[in-house]
Structures are given as structure tokens and as C-alpha cells.
Amino acid sequence: MADQLEQVDPGELVRAAQRGDTVALCDVLDLVTPYVGRVCGAIALDSGPDAAQETLMVVMRSLGGLREPAALFGWVRAIAVREAVRYAERDRRAWPLEEHTLARLPAPGDPELISDVHDVLTRLTPRLRAVLLLRDVHGYSEEDAAALLDLPVGTVKSRLHRARESFRKAWQS
Amino acid sequence: MSDTEQPQGWPTAEVDPVRRLRALAGAVSGAAVTERVYDAPLDVVWGVLVDFEGSFADLQADLTEVRVLDRTGDRVEVAAKGRLGQRARLRGVARDGFCWLQSRFLIMAMAATEEGDGRTRVALTGGVRVPGRAAIVPVGVRRESRRTLDRLGEMLA
User: Fold this and answer.
1) In terms of CA atoms, which chain A residue is nearest residue B135?
2) How does pLDDT run across B52-96, given as a tens digit for each residue?
3) Based on the domain organization, do A14 and A73 belong to the same domain?
4) ipTM
5) In this complex, do A118 and B133 lie within 8 Å of one another by their Cβ atoms?
6) B10 and A117: CB-CB below 8 Å?
7) In DSSP terms, which residues pair with B65 in a beta bridge?
């Protein structure tokens, strides 16, 4: 499936789906699902499957209004981040207060960190997980990431500094 | 693919076939989804659901015969014959746990996923397609799905 889809222009699939071809709609779903799973898993953690399903529902329902099919993944990313944050914040048991938890983040070089990204993520609020993902994995500027999540840029910069440094160590090891 | 790979160790959310079907059906006007859980393992349930040239026509009340015309990877094309003699050529996707088929006048879709303890959740939708559109005529969709699920239950008993 993945091999077949990689040979197809995503824009062409979107246009076919917009014309009412439900098999093309199915192909668009297959194309974006792994990506949605990664975004929602990183931000919503245990609520990831529910957030991913909701994201895909919004994406599928709204696909007809996507004017620039080439911008598919950027459009999907914005929806996935918002839904993942919404689901994660709904499940407040999954994240303790960030002021306490940031202080407990492993220091750079801590051998525990490399093998336990999930544990580190659980110590951040969903919005911080989202900014971390957007900034350090997807290459967003802090301004764009903060705007997408409706957070002050200054707050994002100061609170993410330690977490980002820790994660960079993990990725570069 | 133009999406971004995630560094190793970051959690990923799995989207099972039933969740995929729900999402897809949400984009098809009139495609109400009906679900039921069976006390049987996934491979057994799925084997009955998508046995195109075997039990498929027995499960779908309006069909008398189904023939597979082509199967390449997860792509499938089948010819179906209805009880009133009508014929349809359906094309689409059929793979473990997920099947979505369309013709000009029909949409048929099913999904199944493990529910735990050897049980399987099945989700169905489908019906008469509004020609050329992502839409199903919203008459009797749930009723037909319930009948199909009843027959599936009888076959699994």
C-alpha cells in the first residue's frame, strides 16, 4: 500500500477525493494516517488514538474545502496538533503541573533520558509537548509554533529551553 | 511522502481499521456506521466477511454472486450480481481488517479489529451511492448493516 501511494501525487489524490471518488478518499486517509498517528501520539500520549481518530474525521470532512492540495500535510498538521492538545488537556490525569515537572526533567547527558522519551514527554503539559514537537521535529519557528497553539512566544522560549536541550541530546546520541 | 519522520522513541498513536472506517464514513454523506462485537478471533471473522467468492454474497442480502476480476496488492475489483439481475463492478481496497469498495451506484465498506479476549469488533457501512458523489442515499443504511451483522453472527455461531 505505502509503495503504491508513494508513486501517486498527493495533490491528484486530493482532487479526485474532492470530486467524489471515495476510493481516492480512502487513499488520502492512508497517506496521512501514519503522520497523524505520530503527531497525536507525541502530544496526546495515551489519548493519542482518540485524538488521531478525531483528527482524521475532521480532515476527511473538511477535505472538500482544501484549496491548495499541495499543502495537504501542513493543513493536516495544524488540525492534528489542535486535536491532540484538546484531547490531552481533557485527560488532566495524564499531566501534572509543568512548574513542578520541568524541574524534574533529566539533565542533558542523563543516560535515563535516551531510553525514556515517553517518560519525559509525560512530564510536560500537552501544549509544551506540541511546541517541542513543532519546533524541534517539524522545524517551526517559536513564533509560528506559539501562534498555532495560542501561547505567548516568551513563555514558550523560556519554559522549553531545558526540555529542548535534553531532547536534542537524546536525538543526537 | 512529504511528512516528517519522528525521532526514535517518540510515541505513536495507532489508528485501527475500525477507527479508519469511522473517519472515512464521516466524509461520506449518509454513510451511517453500525458496529457489533463478536466472540470470535479477528482472522476467523475477517475470513468470513471478505470471502468474496464464498460467503460474501450470503452476507449481503441483495447479492447473489460475486466474482473477483482483479487483485493487485491491496487493490481489488469485483463483479457483483444482484437479486433483481442488476450488475455492478466494484473497485477499491481490501486488506486485513479493512475493505472499502465503490461502483457508480454502490458503496460497501467493512472493518474489523481485535477487541481483546479473543473478541472482534466489526463496523459496516454502505448502500446505494449517489452517482459520482461521496454520498449514500440515507435510506435503510443501518437496517441493512444490522441484517448483515445478524447473518455474520449466525455464520460464526
Assistant:
1) A20
2) 999 998 898 788 899 999 999 999 999 999 888 889 999 999 999
3) yes
4) 0.91
5) no
6) yes
7) B81
